[in-house]
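WARN no homologs supplied; continuing
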Amino acid sequence: MTHATSLPPDLHQWVTRHVTGMDTATVTDASWPRENSRVWRVRAVHGEVFVKLYPSTEKYGREVQGCEHATRALAADEAPRLLASDPERPAVVLSALPGRVVRGLPLVQTAERHVHRLAGDLLRRWHDADEPISDREHQRIMASVTAQADEAAVILDRLGDQLSRAEQDLVRDATHDLPDLARALPLTYRHGDYSPRNWLWDEAAGHHGLIDFEESAPGLAVEDLVWLCGAAWPTRPDLRDAFLAGYGRLLSSTEQRSLVLLTARLGVSYLSTGLTKTDTVLIDRGRTVLGHMVRAPR
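OK structure emitted
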């Protein structure tokens, strides 16, 4: 979806108070191709910043807290810094980072493995930065896992005849086992969308960065590996090895089983939504993920 390449007037006026040289600034639409993504790149007198307008105060709050967490967890040039924020709009101004989004970059395999190793190292430092998790948040996390298991049970009942016997068994395991497994898993402040579309790579400087914190929140550490488990690692085990080498440890047997079941739950959700909406992209994605997870060690 294409948005205007100029800031809305009231947003422009607000940004002017925080960014020098807005009268001669160049504004470029930098939104993701989805309806609720509103991001602009602003090149002004003293450099480049990004302006983000959020569809909800919840996502705004997560971005702000994620920036604060990044300040504690990562180096100054590894994540955007929060330059201005306004919960009433809700909007933020963020510093720019060097590099290009990794997703879609034509990287040779050795460079790709290097990027994934750096991504593993960065995520470990993100996870290791202490962030208190209240009893209320702990209850929310456990409730979220239970809700995912319940969703899988409903989908299995509705679509069971469209799944192979092995896929049915896998989804059934997710419905039965995930809530109990979650109680034994490490909790952390997770990024929430840890994938190459939110990684930046500056090849000349050998520099890796991380963006987009609007899904960040306390949760299960393995949740940050679900995209990789479903989309990257099944066909590229070398990337898994590189990532975990950077992360600094292998997954425990409980983490590995939970990761496969969480990923299978996502796959069957893709499939269900795709069949409901006659969306062939989601149908293919769901079937691919389920096929991979049936063959994954768990």
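The chain has two domains: 9-96, 101-295.
OK
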